[in-house]
Every structure is written in structure tokens, then in C-alpha cells.
Amino acid sequence: MAVRRPRRGAAAPPSRSSRRPCRVPGGRAGAAMGRAALLPLLLVAAAGRAGVSAAGGPEVRSLRGSWWLANGNGSVVLRGEVPGCVHTALHRRGLIQDPYYRFNDVTYRWISLDNWTYSRTFKTPFDDRKWQKVNLVFEGVDTVAQILINNITLGRTDNMFNRYSFDITSVIKEVNFVEVRFLSAVSYAAEQSRCHKAYSIPPACPPPVQKGECHANFIRKEQCSFSWDWGPSFPTQGIWKDVRIEAYNHYHLIYFSLTSFFEKSAQQWSLEIESIFDVVSSKPIAGLVTVNIPKLQTQQTFSVKLQPGEGSIVLLVNINKSSTVEAWWPNGHGKQTGYNMTTTFIMEAGYQIEKSSKAYFRTVELVQEPIPGSPGLSFYFRINGRPIFIKGSNWIPADSFQDRVTYDTLWLLLKSAADANMNALRVWGGGVYEQDEFYDICDEIGIMIWQDFMFACALYPTDQYYLESVRAEVSHQVRRLKSHPSIILWSGNNENEAAIASNWFSIPYADREVYIKDYVMLYVKNIREIVLTEDKSRPFIASSPTNGLESVKEGWLSQNPYDTHYGDTHFYDYSNDCWNWTVYPKTRFASEYGFQSWPSFSTIEKVSSTEDWSYTSNFSLHRQHHENGNDQMLQQIEHHFKLPQSTDPIKKFKDTIYLTQVMQAQCIKTETEFYRFSQSEIIRGEGHTMGALYWQLNDIWQAPSWASLEYGGKWKLLHYFAQNFFAPLLPVAYEDKSVLYIYGVSDLHVDHKLTLRASVSQQDDIYIFVLQTTAIAPFVSLDVGSIKGRFSDNGFLMTEQKKVVVFYPWEPTGVEELEKSLTLTSLVDVV
Ligand code: BMA
């Protein structure tokens, strides 16, 4: 391994013991010492995408780019990019292999157990004496670190979802040395758990099959980075978002947001504009703010006064009633119209700010009201006054290494969701609050977002220090995200109401109250309170699944959060035959349900070697993080198909992969059609289902999982099926025709011989595949290996002799390349 020294004298950071004192309530553990103790430490709980555009404005110097990275004892020193993480840096420098290759998640565990330091020098690009305030701003630090500038400690970070701003006015020099000394997230979490002496907070560790790390619930970090039942353990360290120096006089806009409201009685749209400032002058600053939305013939001027310190001003703009406002609609229901708008701040002191943004108009209501003929309450979304059936899936982080998630990655995955006729996704609570671009794309293509707060499948501490950190996180994220019309709901956590109600962690009855108290303290008294203060434009629920208002009535924890008469449900059943729709709960809203499958061979091939290519190889077992997952898939297949018998091991592996995908697609089609069909009926008090979000949309790596999109974006058969079962006009006539149709398909495969041929031709940017068959072919799958793109249809039943399928490439390709890569499989090819 190459070892180099950094250019600066600081060389390798001093090695630190992984043991640190427990946190002190109300203070920051080991907060700035010596000189630094005199510095006011500003933890700004707000994000700024606030752009300014006039002379005299703040000076901003980005510290993105190349930094030095060193491990704890200085034996590994390398250059790495910021934003980024240690794993990506080591991989880019060739010091480690692809972390996703074979068993590397376990082999490279040492990286996360070490304590790394990021450092760099920078020249102050301005005369620092000219500025009243200079800040060092981190948009995201992953996660536990001590921040130093010129050997002076500025403070500590412990929450990757916060934004940190340190006042460096009195310590900045002409040339500066900045260091971010990380502590292993794994060691920190273990230590926090050890310090929490009064009672344990389960779960201690993930199940062994996940090969993960323990005590993820003790650190405010992407919970699935300690492993999940579809993902590896890579508890990264790094500066994962932007970092910069900003200098200003008088005042500085640190956050700017818009939310829309509609007053029914007056038939009036209005916009609430919130601006959060840091005012450094000792006296209030008065000025004028002008808001202009030319297309809506709306212009309004307000006189404002900014008070010293951090504070906000809220303006309410009424939209000109003689203009027609086009609302923002979800995919499939209308256009996603937005209006260009400018907000100009002209203040008596300092500079002028001109902020350009897009104003969207849409309302959202979560309707929970009695249903005639049914006990319980409804649970559905009314968008712009219209009840909308929510169709879609659940989103998990697109990569273990967030710096690899580009705009293109997000676009491809989200566009694939929209192309499959989805109108919504749930950003699940075990991952991250996604980057701004994610929500920008959703706004643009009409994907509604059910946004969880990042707590999942665990109980959490509520000591004062922890709560302070969460409170800062929640205000920051709500302020950052609330302008997005795509977000229709805030939700406190994933499955934590259910975890207590169903006693997942075997808590003795006598101790239950402590955990209930913690639950209410965290999600209701803190998170909910902040959300309600920060954002009045969309609903909040405390958990998913929940009974909604019924849970509230029962003290926020209902006896059975899976009750089909209230709220949303999660439902998993791997043992019953998934084609039997009677096993599914007739719920008000299905926010999670799913079945696993394997990703296609071309995806697996990239991270494995020949010896791995069998369903029972060590590799296949290693990648499966869900107990008995591989067997469960075979059992489900066996309900309807013969298991592959080929003597050629690779053919057998490929056939099995294909069958897992057929099975998954068919199972979720059956279940989703059941939910869609249940929309318009009440049977024995159950029904009026108004949402179907299957688990899960995307993958974090190449492994078996519930996803319909493979790592890299390739569509599994399920995703092609989703395009059909989410189609706007779907005949979901289960009781009669559709049941016969679906079961008819399964009956056809056994004794039919057929020949399938594929000719490919090009037409502009698309490719036309003409398929010919001599007999009926069930579940025809077209696969062009690693060529990026998608077909217009796949996994279909071919009853006609000829079928035309279009291939939409995502990168340049050619007829010859496609022909070479094409494999055609149908059920009759499986031997
Ligand atoms: C639900 C999710 C995830 C999990 C999935 C599959 O519980 O919330 O935690 O990955 O089921 O088991």
C-alpha cells in the first residue's frame, strides 16, 4: 500500500484512543478548549441555497476539491476528494479494490474501524479584516469529528444530517490549516451505548446474516450504513457535502423557502416566504422586500426590520386573483407548472439581495374521516382537492458511498419510476434525507414524496444531548426541503411504533412505559413540535405503519399499528402462495409490501468471479442479508414452476435468477392489483385502499433484494410489470377475468415447444426488436447484458406470432452490439 506524507508539517494526526468521555447533557463533549473556548460556536440549524447577486455581498470560498487523508497512526496517507469519503478515496487511488467486489464489505471493515483525519491548507482569498464575520460552513460531515483550524478546536460534529457553521472571525489567517479529525462511527456508537447506563436501547446488533455493526441507533448517521437486510455495512467517514468559507458584513441570508396555501372561502392562493438571516450589526436593519411573479401579475413590497442575531422574517404574498394559477400536479394527473419569481431585499445597510426561485402551487390533505359501512377511518391524500391513489415504491440510498450518487444516477432512477406510471415514492427512514437535486427532479416530473425522518426499526435514546442534535437536524432538514411541492408528508420514523406495539425486542411488560415515554418524547414532543412550527403546509404522522388519528387517540402508540381499518400498513408474507390474493390485507393504504429477487447476471457478474456463479455458492449466501431469503425465493417459485435442473451450473444459475424475477414480478403484480382493486369497495368493513407503495424501488449494491431497479438502474422484470400494473387504465377485475388470465399464464408453460427469434433495427435514437414465436411463450424476458437502457415492455406473455418491442438506450450503442448481447428467455427455456 502506497504511503505518502502530507505536504504540511502537521503530518499524520496524533493517534487517539477510541474511548471518549460520555456526553454531558446540555453541552458538547470535549467542546473547544483553551483559546477556542473564547470563540462563540454557532451551530446554525439552517441550510442555505440562498444565492445573492449584488456587489458588496458575502465572499464565498469553496473548500471542495483535494484534501489530505490519513488514518489513525499515519501509516496510510493519501489524497481524497471533498465531498467524498475514505472508501471512495482509497478506491480511486487504487489502494483498495472495488468495495462491492465479492466479500470486500467484510474484508474492508478495518477502514470504518480506523479514525481518519481530513486536512488541507487554504489561503484566505480576501482581506479578512474587512469582514465582521467569517464562518467555516460544512453542509454535511459524516459523522463524528473534531474540527480544527490553525490547531485551534472550533467544535465537534456528531450528526451527519446537520449543517455546521463555525465562527472563525478571530482565528482566520492569511494561510490556514484546517483539520477534520474523525472518530470511527462504529466505536462512537458502541461507546454511546455503553454510556447509556440506565437501561438498554435495543436492538444492540443487527442479525448475523447482515454482517453488520452494532448500535446504529446511538449515532445520527445513515442507519443502513451499519448494514441492512438488503445492504452491506460501510459506515463511512468523510466530508460528504459542500464545505466553504463565507464572510459578510451587516447581514447574511442563510435560508430562504416558499410554501403555498389556498384559502377555499376566498378562492385565494397565497405564498408564505420565509427568510432566515444572521444579522451581525448591533442595531436592527430596516429595508424593503419586493416579491415579483410576472406571469401571475403579482408584485408586492413589504417593509421589514431585521433584528441582531439569527432570526427569520415571514412574508405572505397574495396572488392576484385575476390571474389563473396552474397548480402543480402529480405524474399522470396534470402538469408540474412552476412560476418564476424574484425576491429583492433592499436594506438600509449593506448590500442588496436578489433571489430567484420557482413558486409552485399545490395543496395536500391527509384525509382521515369515517367511512360509511366501515369501522375506523379513511387514510388518503387529497391533492388540490382531488383524492389521488398513491402508486409507487420505497426509496433507499442509491449507493453506500453518497459521493457516487450523481445527478444522472438520480435522474435515471426517478425517471424510471415515472416511466413505470408511479406518482409517488417514500424516502424511507433508514437512509438519508436526499440531496436537493433529488427533490428538484421529483418536482419536475411529478413524483410525490412521503418523507420519513431518519429513524428505523429501532428504539432511540432521548437524553438531552441527543435531543438537541435531533432538534437541529429536524429544523435544518425541514427548512431545506419545505419549498418542494413534491413532498406531501412528513413521517416520524420507520416501524418504530410497530416495534414497541408488537414488542420486537422482547421488552418485559414492566419496563414498557420507559420506552413509550422515550417514543413520545422523540417523535411527538420534539420532532412533531418542530415540524408543526416550521411547516404548516403539509401533514405529519409519527410513524409508518401507524393508525394515524387512532394512534394519537391511544397515546401515539396503538395496540396494533397494522390495523386495516386505520392508517397505513406494511405487509410481508413469504410462505403463502403469493398468487393467492386472499392472503393480502385489505388495508386503507399499503405503504410497504414486497418479495425478493436476484438482480440479472450481467449485474452480478461485475462483482463476482466464476466460482461464485451458482445459487448456493458462498458468494450467493454472503450477498443475501435476509435470513433464509434465497430459500424463500425458491419456495415461492415452486408454488408454480419447476426449479431449474440444468447440468450446466451457469445456465442453472441464470435460469434461477430469471425465475426469481418472474416470481417477484408476478407476486407484486397480484398484490398491487388487489390493492388497486380494493379502492372502490368495502368488504366486511375493509377496503377503500388508496395507496400502494411496494418495497423497494432501488438497490444500494448488487445483491438479492426487494428492488425493481438493479444497482446501476437496470430494470428487473418487476419494473416492467409495474409499468403495466400501475398503468392509468388497468382492468383489475380480479374476481373474474383477470384471475383467469393470470392463472392461465401459469398453466401454459409446461408442454409447449417454441422457437423465438429476434431481429433488431434502428430508428433515430431507439432500437426496434421484432420477436417471432412459433408457440405461446410465457414471461418472455429480453436482456442485453450491461448495455444501459430499457425496453418498452418485458416479461410479457407472447400469444401472437409477432411482437415489436422498443429499446431506449441510456448511452450510445448499435444494432450489432445489441444483437451480440441479446439473450431471450421464456419459461420454456428453463430446464
Ligand atoms: C421493511 C422495511 C425495511 C426492510 C424491508 C424488508 O421493514 O422498512 O426495514 O428492508 O421491510 O425486510
What does this structure look like?
With 831 residues, the chain is an alpha+beta fold. The protein contains 17 helices and 41 strands. The protein has a 6-stranded antiparallel beta sheet with strand order 3-2-4-9-6-7. Bound molecules: beta-D-mannopyranose (BMA). The site of beta-D-mannopyranose (BMA) has 12 residues, from loops.
List the defining traits of the structure above:
alpha+beta, six-stranded antiparallel sheet, 17 helices, globular, six-stranded parallel sheet, single chain, 41 strands, binds beta-D-mannopyranose, 22% helix, 831 residues, disordered N terminus
Largest sheet properties = 6 strands, antiparallel
Associated small molecules? beta-D-mannopyranose
Strand order of the largest sheet: 3-2-4-9-6-7
| Total beta strand runs | 41
Query: Proportion of β residues?
Result: 25-35%
Shape: globular
Number of helices: 17
Structural class: alpha+beta
- Uncertain spans, ≥5 residues at pLDDT below 50? 1-20, 24-54, 735-752
Spatial separation of the terminal alpha carbons: 47 Å
What does the radius of gyration come to?
Answer: 28 Å
Relative helix content: 10-25%
Mean pLDDT: 90
